[in-house]
Amino acid sequence: MTYKTRNMAALWCVSVRLGRVCRCSNRIIASRRNLSEHKSSDETDKEEGTEKSTHFGFESINESEKTGKVHEVFSNVASKYDVMNDAMSLGVHRLWKDRFMQVLDPLPGTRLLDVAGGTGDIAFRFINWIKEKELQQKKASPGAEFRLNPLETDDSESAPDLEFPSAEDYLYSEQREDTTGTDDRKDSKVIICDINQSMLEVGKERAKKLGLEDDVVWVTGNAEELPFPDNSVDAYTIAFGIRNVTHIEKVLCEAYRVLTPGGRFLCLEFSQVSNPLLSSVYDLYSFQVIPVLGELIASDWKSYQYLVESIRKFPNQEEFAEMIREAGFRMVSYENLTSGVAAIHSGFKI
């Protein structure tokens, strides 16, 4: 065999092996991103009567264990949660949440349910957004009066007619039509529902400092079994919370149930980065830096390691959008933020 022939044979062997490695790697990546394959390889069939397993970060656990483990994580990080968000994202999470509220674009009279919103970031933005809208309405109609009060209504006054320039606003306007001659829904309301009391306590303290303690109703509840009646809220938001639940599909169905017809579901969550170069840098930062920050700032490496791993286990943008559709929502769409590091998913109950 000549030198040239041996080289060609060697190159062929290397290319074959590389091809096998790439195919194997692609299968691993695909399996990580496919929600249906997020179970351990030793999970037995339902027919055998054993408990189903789910993921807790990269760990496989029984479904009955996840709620408790997630509860423990957020109890541990509650006091440093907002500080860590700033440190981990270099403050970018604030811009994401501002954009989130811009997409929601609520009008005075909107009843918002913010799930997994314990520390109040989304609810407080909602309140400030509504107050700004109220000022704009007052300037346009000096005699009009709007209030943001979750507990009181006054049936003696009628809300002024509003203009709804967009399709989304039109959907909201339909639920404000008043056939009785009175309107008891002109007061905006915001309810924060979180399964973790420690997170709610942090939010309440923040609300006091901001002078917003009377503007929010705080409820301890599970996103998979919301303690609210059907068709009771106009908007449902969940930010950086849905990836931590045991059954995403149950959360989506509950969101659909409590929303009024025409109501909007909006979710802000970490997602999958499509740019290979950015993805590599993001992975390096996530696994090598964030847990270290967790240890330095919150003295808790393990909880922040879980948070990083939970992001990798969450469905990608298209998969999550399909889950939202399967729950019954229409006009489903999503917007990538920072090249897909996070994404805003939207859907309407029609």
TrEMBL record:
Topology of the protein relative to the lipid bilayer? Peripheral membrane protein
Molecular function as annotated in GO: 2-methoxy-6-polyprenyl-1,4-benzoquinol methyltransferase activity
The ranges of region (Disordered) come to 35-61, 141-163
Write out the residues that bind S-adenosyl-L-methionine. Answer: 119, 194, 222-223
**Gene Ontology CC terms:** extrinsic component of mitochondrial inner membrane
- Major localization listed first in the record, in broad terms: mitochondrion
Which EC number(s) are documented for this chain?
A: 2.1.1.201
Q: Where in the cell is it found?
A: Mitochondrion inner membrane
Keyword Membrane part of the UniProt annotation: yes
Catalytic activity, reaction form: a 2-methoxy-6-(all-trans-polyprenyl)benzene-1,4-diol + S-adenosyl-L-methionine = a 5-methoxy-2-methyl-3-(all-trans-polyprenyl)benzene-1,4-diol + S-adenosyl-L-homocysteine + H(+)
Q: Which Pfam families match?
A: Ubie_methyltran
Q: What Gene3D superfamilies does UniProt report for this protein, alphabetically? A: Vaccinia Virus protein VP39
| Keywords assigned | Membrane, Methyltransferase, Mitochondrion, Mitochondrion inner membrane, S-adenosyl-L-methionine, Transferase, Ubiquinone biosynthesis
InterPro entries recorded for this chain? SAM-dependent_MTases_sf, UbiE/COQ5_MeTrFase, UbiE/COQ5_MeTrFase_CS
Answer yes or no on keyword S-adenosyl-L-methionine: yes
Pathway assignment:
Cofactor biosynthesis; ubiquinone biosynthesis
The record, for HAMAP family, names:
MenG_UbiE_methyltr
Listed PANTHER family: 2-METHOXY-6-POLYPRENYL-1,4-BENZOQUINOL METHYLASE, MITOCHONDRIAL, METHYLTRANSFERASE
Q: What is this protein called?
A: 2-methoxy-6-polyprenyl-1,4-benzoquinol methylase, mitochondrial
